[in-house]
Write a structure and sequence with these properties.
By secondary structure, the protein is mainly alpha-helical. The chain has one domain. It is 41% helix and 10% strand. It has helices spanning 32-40, 47-59, 65-74, 84-91, 127-134, 139-152, 175-180, 202-217, 237-254, 262-268, 280-295, and strands at 81-82, 94-95, 102-105, 111-116, 120-121, 155-160, 170-172, 192-197. The strands form 3 sheets. Strands 1-4-3 form a 3-stranded antiparallel β-sheet. Strands 6-8-7 form a 3-stranded mixed β-sheet. β3 and β4 form a beta hairpin. α2 packs across α3. The longest helix is centred in the last third of the chain and has 18 residues, at 237-254.
Length: 303
């Protein structure tokens, strides 16, 4: 039995993990409310508005993308948020009498209340007090961890040379495709294959892996019976490219990587015209799945 890729990330980076056998987290497969809001509210349907939203979510690394979005809805000026207890215990700051709570989802209870630093008073935050959350992730560790955990989920990640620009890099395996890639020595039960260009830097490999996993977890390749994400393979090509690129940009920015796949997204939305109504919820879910894959090494399940 293996670990579930959770919808939630606990405050200050404490992961909430379960079992894939338990099924998706409630609300994970039904993103209708988020996507309906995205379709109706055009604040984020321009290039500049959408990029600003992604940047806001990227700054709040301690919270899941969905919770960061909920924070943005309630207080788009927020810069750093925490629970009242966290402000008091970790930063010795107390809430102001008129402090406004921000409601987010909590993994073991209906909601959690957090507060922006503007609604607190106390000692200023220094680089030392922020060091635990401001450290940038090491690209090599992220890449190795994600590749290892992809293997446990029977998603093979292989490097190849001479990949053509138009070559498929995320592949849902069929018997015919398994024979085509026989030289890679794939295990018989491998479900998906991701190909990375061997000549890329480690950071760019991780960005590329995030992009291709984004295609998988957004459902662009279709699903098999073990998938916990929706089947969305019949999407418009423009929506597919925007979603995958947005997933990769969110993941890399939230990991603090210097090399981010901004070029992927820029190629999809070249001007400030209104964007199509793609799934914001699918982007958030896929980014959360990839973050879970990159967090720590999982143990292989027993037979």
């Amino acid at each position: 039995m293996t670990e579930q890729l959770s919808l939630f990330q606990a405050p200050e980076g404490r992961a909430i993990e379960g079992l894939i056998a338990a099924g998706p987290v409630p609300g994970e497969s039904d993103g209708g409310a988020v996507d309906e809001l995205f379709r109706r509210d055009r604040r984020w349907r321009s290039r500049s508005g959408f990029l600003a939203l992604l940047e806001f979510i990227a700054r709040l690394r301690a919270y899941s993308p969905l919770n960061a979005f909920l924070i943005h809805l309630q207080d788009p000026a927020a810069t750093r948020v925490a629970t009242a207890r966290m402000w008091a215990r970790k930063y010795q700051r107390r809430l102001l009498p008129e402090a406004r709570p921000i409601v987010i989802l909590a993994p073991m209870s209906p909601v959690l209340f957090v507060f922006d630093i503007r609604d607190t008073e106390g000692p200023p935050l220094t680089p030392n007090t922020l060091s635990a959350t401001a450290l940038e992730a090491r690209p090599a560790r992220l890449l190795d961890t994600a590749r290892h955990n992809c293997g446990i989920q029977r998603m093979a990640v292989r490097e190849a040379t001479g990949l053509a620009p138009s070559a498929e890099r995320a592949i849902r395996l069929t018997p015919a495709l398994r024979r085509k890639h026989a030289e890679l020595g794939l295990e018989p039960n491998t479900r998906y294959l991701v190909l990375l260009d061997a000549g890329l830097s480690v950071e760019t490999k991780y960005a590329s892996l995030s992009l291709e996993l984004g295609r998988i977890f957004c459902g662009h390749l279709g699903i098999d019976r073990e998938a916990w994400w929706p089947d969305r393979k019949d999407l418009d090509c423009e929506c597919i490219e925007i979603e995958a690129a947005a997933v990769a940009q969110l993941v890399c920015r939230r990991k603090g990587l210097a090399a981010t796949p901004e070029g992927f997204l820029a190629a999809c939305i070249k001007n400030d015209q209104e964007l199509p109504a793609f799934s914001l919820n699918a982007i958030f879910q896929a980014a959360g799945h990839i973050e879970a894959l990159s967090r720590r090494l999982w143990k292989k399940p027993r037979n």
